[in-house]
Amino acid sequence: MSSNSPQKPLPHLAGMDGLRAVAILAVVLFHIWPSALPGGFTGVDVFLVLSGFLITRLILDDIRADRFSLKEFYLRRIQRLLPNLTVTILVVLLIWRCFFMPSTAMQPAWHALWTLFNLSNFYNWLQLGGYWGTDAAQAPFTHFWSLGVEEQFYLLFPGCLLLLIRIQAKRLRTWLAVVALISFAGYLYGTRAAPTATFYLLPTRAWEFLIGAILAAHGSPGGLLRLHRHLQNPKATEAFGWIGLALIFSGYVFIHENRQSSGLLLLAPTLGTALVILSVVNAETRLSRLLSLRPFAGIGKLSYSLYLWHWPLITFGKLQAEYYGQPPLTGATLGAAAGVLLSWIAYKTVEQPFRRRAPGRDWRLAVITTAVGITALVCGVLAIRPPAADPHHRFDPIVSYFLHFDSAKSSTLDLARDARFSDVEFPPHPPRAVEAWRTGGIIHRYGGGQPQVVVFGSSHALMYSKLIDDLCRERHLSVAFLGAGKGKSAFFETLPSTNFPTKKEAEAFNEARRNALREWRPAVLFIIDRWEMHAASPAEFDGKLRAFLRETTPWTGRVVFVAQVPVAEQGDAINLREFINWHWDRSPENRGPRLAINSKEPHRRQLVATAEAATLDFKNLEVLRADRLFHQPDGSLRYAEGRRFFYGDDDHLTQAGAEEAGPLFKNALREINTPPPAPR
After folding, report:
1. For residue 629, what is the domain's CATH number?
2. Which of 193, 203, 262, 478 has the most CB atoms around it within 10 Å of its CB?
3. Which helix (H) or strand (E) covers residue 101, if one does?
4. Phi, psi at residue 434, to the nearest 5°?
5. Facing residues of 424 across strands?
């Protein structure tokens, strides 16, 4: 890879700045108004290909000139990325702390800590879930996932490239292509098998960087690609550029979030970016001159700063618009405008001064190091120390016995670390097997014999389990709990969940529950779930319910279907007690706010009606209408009564809330006869 001729410094390609503008404008428009440019999020994929090209071009040029240094490479990355990033984090945390409830700064603070360690994509994957989910949509640093992927590539790629050049220089492009194909194959498989991990993680994103790297690794200094002789034809080069731009825009228009499983569609913007790069490196093409115009080049130079700042301010604008009853699009637009202004200020006052190579570099690096340390300290304080949710003690202490009755792995989780439950007491549960379902679940033989009452369901079953257990103790009825938190359906479904990550494990859990019913023949089987999560339509739900009932009703005296309680509109990202108190303190009437029920309430009512209709065909099916207890006459949510607070988060009841349904559950146990004591 060395050259005997003197190496000239790489020229700045203004057209590349213009290509950055094409990418960032699409991302910003998508975040403001997703339906206007449904595939605008693929602007990030354009960035990844472009990043792979520019970094490889720079490294190869330094190697040819015998001036490459890993230390120097990483110091440049630090100067380029960290100053603006730390300022963004600190300003956004300050905004969240001042304008929202104190605990709302906890999630972004944790996210920022992961970001400082180049793990923001792992945070999204493990904590926020899918990119289009509610949690991700309301988190101010969701977009940092791409920074994590990029920084991990920067960390690994230079050393690997150096090693390849030393031992396989003649096959460099071949090895890059092989790794790219393996990564792309993993991406195609992962979009179906594990879409969230595939979206966020480097192994299934590396192929995009490597498309750019392969371009840079071909041919002459500066990484110009020579595929065939006709590419040296100006007309062909011009045509490739416009075809590439059309492919990029086709991705912006035709790729939708619900079509990501196709996988191959992402080749349009990525290969289109490669074709545009081919055209832009030739500064004589019309496309290169167009992208080099000052407006495009200026936006491109601002792109990193704009990427950092736009999403937090858009999110802030939407949340403020919701609070004041304004359209979300209005809030998003105003937030984006504020993001543009702040990004320009940060670019001029932070990013540019700290990335220059003028004298005083040691001082600048010392300032950056100090800023990162201060940012990490601020994040740690905000993330670890939850504020008091009920500082005025308006409500009785909140207690939850979820973990006492979870027969699966999630019984080991510390829910108190979640800001939603920071004020909830989780009494320690008695020692038991982590996966108690393998041995029949959590069984309390109050009647001395086999369980007469069995409970199936998800975390919604866990919230009633203490109540059911107390009632069974009073009646001397043996009871078994085979509920599992973290999204496992009460039905015999084999969809993977947190506790059962594979279809095989999910089926093993189902078979254990079937065997328990066959053996015990209980008098009552309670099925309790967040039913709206398991069916998109009443017809689909009816099919699942009836299939379950056909299998289980021959083994049980009665099946009691417990209607799902209403869900608060605020979502599951906040602590409801804190939310109530925060609004209460700002209320002129000095009272708690009215809480709306979320928009899925009509769907929930349809599912209850479907279950009630099934009682005509299944005579031992009974519907327990616990949902009615938590509706106010005006249609709002009944979340408290006096000092008793009924909701742990947006959809789970506290123990006080569960006890509101005590008479209903007691009635459901009415016909069970207590067995006589076993002879001694």
Report:
1. 3.40.50.1110
2. 478
3. none
4. -60, -40
5. 398
Gap between the Cα atoms of 573 and 582, Å rounded: 15
Model pTM score: 0.76
Enumerate the β-bridge partners of residue 63: none
The predicted pLDDT at position 423 comes to 85
**Do 110 and 366 touch, CB atoms closer than 8 A?**
no
SS3 423: coil
**Rg, the chain, Cα only:** 29
**Based on the domain organization, do 55 and 86 belong to the same domain?**
yes
Q: Distance between CA 151 and CA 148 in Å, rounded? A: 5
Which of the residues in the chain have pLDDT under 70? 1-10, 134, 219-232, 258-262, 283, 409-417, 487, 674-680
If you write DSSP's letter for every residue of 395-422 in order, what string do you get? SPPEE--GGGSB-SGGGG--GGGSGGGT
Query: Do residues 311 and 372 both lie within one domain?
Result: yes
End position of a domain, from candidates 384, 407, 429: 384
Q: 138, 96 in Cβ contact below 8 A? A: no
Query: Per the domain annotation, does 183 fall within a domain?
Result: yes
Nearest to 285 by CA among 242, 247, 244, 328: 242
In a domain, 5, yes or no: no
Q: What is the pLDDT of residues 292-343, one digit of tens each?
A: 999 999 999 999 999 999 999 999 999 899 878 789 999 999 999 999 999 9
Examine the domain organization and report whether 518 and 635 are in the same domain.
Answer: yes
Residues 6+ apart with CB under 8 A from 642: none
Residues 494 and 360 placed together within one structural domain of the fold: no
Shared domain for 276 and 325, answered yes or no, is: yes
Q: Give the range of the structural domain holding residue 443, as residue numbers without chain letter.
A: 398-668
Please indicate, yes or no, whether residues 234 and 356 belong to a single structural domain of this protein: yes
What are the residue ranges of helices labelled H in 521-591? 538-552, 576-585
273 and 411 inside one domain: no
